What does this fold into?
Amino acid sequence: QVRLLESGGGLVQAGGSLRLSCAASGRTFSSYAMGWFRQAPGKEREFVAGISRSGGGTRCAVSMQGRFTISRDNATNAVFLHMNSLKPKDPAVYYCAASGHYGTTAPSWYDYWGQGTQVTVSS
It folds into this structure.
């Protein structure tokens, strides 16, 4: 089992940057692909970015390519989401999640979820 705890959310001006962190417990962290999702009020949870077990493979939602980057550190059981050029459409609760399968964007493929961290963007 993997327990996930996000941090790093907050209020930022449009055009600004944030780095979200996700700390994982458990000795099997490196056996999971990891992903970031977000959910805005009244909307479905959507895929943001994913990273393979080793960190050698990453993918990002098209609308966030060039602005968001995912990374991980298996030595410290952490995964990160670097967000640049934040836009008024980016506010949401951001979740990290763990999956036994890399390359999927569907939330149903992810087995473990954190509680989420709120990101707010002021214009």
